[in-house]
Specification:
single chain, 285 residues, alpha/beta, Glutaredoxin, Serine Threonine Protein Phosphatase 5, Tetratricopeptide repeat, 3 domains, 5-stranded mixed β-sheet, 14 helices, elongated, disordered N terminus, Co-chaperone YbbN, TPR-like_helical_dom_sf, Thioredoxin-like_sf, Thioredoxin_domain
């Protein structure tokens, strides 16, 4: 059995089935026909090795020494060097004869490789399915930052934002979804946002807010309202209230500890986390 972690494999009759039929189920196999006496094919080998190393998670380079493997050369019908064929799921999906530049090779590979954000997207889904919504949010945000036009990344990040209590983030993300993409998944996420909004308007929170409106200088009450807001997934409002206290008195009660706990509870990648970390650092230092 071939080593799945290998970037380059010398293809022969013995490992042909494993590499071409089995390994290609999980990775794109670049079959490269070359010979040491053919200078263009020797030169292009290093370029392919570099590209394979850059895409090691998705690519295996299978090199065929044409003088040593005539049966494989015949099976693929190769007539000139260098010749490159891309194999996926046991079948050729692309190929070309003759030397190619690094840019040309990269463009050809890009047609058949996962998008840069795809691996992060899949990791985020896995984390969400495992119940780790904080990690799912972080991974989904990384995928989204790579390609904000990927609507699946946007939907997943919005979903994670709801689950981690970042309703304002979810609303901002969904507000930019184009009409053509407003499908059943879109409707489902919007429904979750609406339900979360309704749940946030608890009688207890409303009562505390009314109490604060009548006593706006009560700092202890402000901390209570901030905690209630955070529990209602209104984190930004909660942090704004806490910073009103800290700007007035940095060492008042538990305000600083509550603020730091609230910031640290935000998932990595959430813009609020970096925003309020900068604000707290400016106060502390």
């Amino acid at each position: 059995m071939t080593d799945q972690s290998a970037i380059s494999i010398a293809l022969n009759v013995e490992n042909f089935k494993q590499v071409i039929l089995e390994d290609s189920q999980n990775k794109l196999v670049i079959t490269y026909f070359w010979a040491p006496w053919d200078e263009p094919s020797v030169q292009m080998m290093s370029t392919l090795e570099s590209l394979a190393a850059q895409n090691a998670a998705s690519v295996v380079l299978a090199t065929i020494h044409c003088d040593e493997q005539p049966e494989i050369v015949q099976q693929f019908g190769v007539r000139s060097l260098p010749t490159t064929m891309l194999i996926k799921d046991g079948q050729p999906v692309d190929g070309f004869a003759g030397p190619q530049t690094a840019e040309q090779l990269s463009q050809t590979l890009a047609k058949h490789l996962p998008s840069p954000e795809q691996e992060l997207f899949e990791q985020a889904i896995s984390a969400a399915q495992g119940g780790d919504m904080q990690q799912a949010f972080t991974l989904a945000k990384q995928a989204f930052d790579i390609n904000p036009d990927n609507v699946e990344c946007r939907f997943l990040l919005s979903d994670c934002a709801i689950e981690t209590g970042q309703l304002d983030t979810a609303k901002s993300l969904m507000a930019e979804v184009k009409l053509v993409d407003q499908d059943a998944r879109y409707q489902s996420i919007m429904g979750k946002i609406e339900l979360a909004d309704k749940a946030a308007e608890s009688p207890e929170l409303i009562a505390l807010q009314n109490e604060l409106a009548n006593a706006p200088d009560d700092l202890d009450l402000k901390i209570k309202v901030a905690i209630a807001l955070q529990q209602a997934h209104k984190t930004e409002q909660a942090l704004d209230l806490l910073f009103e206290i800290l700007n007035h008195d940095l060492n008042y009660g538990d305000a600083k500890k509550v603020t730091l706990d609230m910031i640290n509870a935000l998932p990595d990648g959430e813009p609020l986390k970096s925003k309020y970390r900068r604000k707290i650092y400016s106060l502390l230092y």
